[in-house]
Amino acid sequence: QVQLVESGGGLVQAGGSLRLSCAASGRSFSSKVMGWFRQAPGKEREFVAAFSWSGGYTYYTDSVKGRFTISRDNAKNTVFLQMNSLQPEDTAIYYCAQKRVPGFGSNWWSIGGVYDYWGQGTQVTVSS
């Protein structure tokens, strides 16, 4: 089993920055894929970013390209989401997810249902 714990959420003004962390514990998979998703009030969960732990690829949804950066700390088995130039529309609960091995098919990394483990989420609120 894998446990994912997010942290780093909070309240920030538009234009500000936050860095979310997702600490993974438990069983480790060398080919795992880490993803970030978010869900705003009254909306469906949406994909934000994903990357392969082996370093083969990184993906971002169009609305965050150039503003968000996903990275990792191998020693701490932690993945980060650096969020800059935040806007009110970024307000949501942000979830970290892990897929044990890469998937297949078109844009599989953006589909929440393919991920095996999820964190509890962290709230990000951006005021205008």
Description:
- With 128 residues, this protein is mainly β.
- Helices cover 0% and strands 50% of the residues.
- It is built from no helices and 11 strands.
- Strands 2, 4, 5, 6, 9, 10 and 11 form a 7-stranded mixed sheet that branches.
- It is globular and about 40 Å long.
- The relative contact order is 0.32.
- The mean pLDDT is 94.
- Beta content comes to over 45%
Count of helical regions: 0
Helix/strand/pairing class, anyone?
Answer: mainly beta
Residue-averaged pLDDT, rounded?
94
> What order do the helices and strands follow?
EEEEEEEEEEE
Please give the number of β-strands.
11
Helix content: under 10%
Flag low-confidence runs: none
Terminal Cα span:
40 Å
Radius of gyration: 14 Å
Largest sheet: 7 strands, mixed
Overall morphology = globular
In short:
With 128 residues, the protein is mainly β. 0% of the residues lie in helices and 50% in strands.
Please give the structural blueprint.
Blueprint: E1 2-7, E2 10-13, E3 18-26, E4 33-39, E5 46-52, E6 58-60, E7 68-73, E8 78-83, E9 92-99, E10 117-118, E11 122-127
Parallel strand pairs: 2-11
Antiparallel strand pairs: 1-3, 3-8, 4-5, 4-9, 5-6, 7-8, 9-10, 9-11
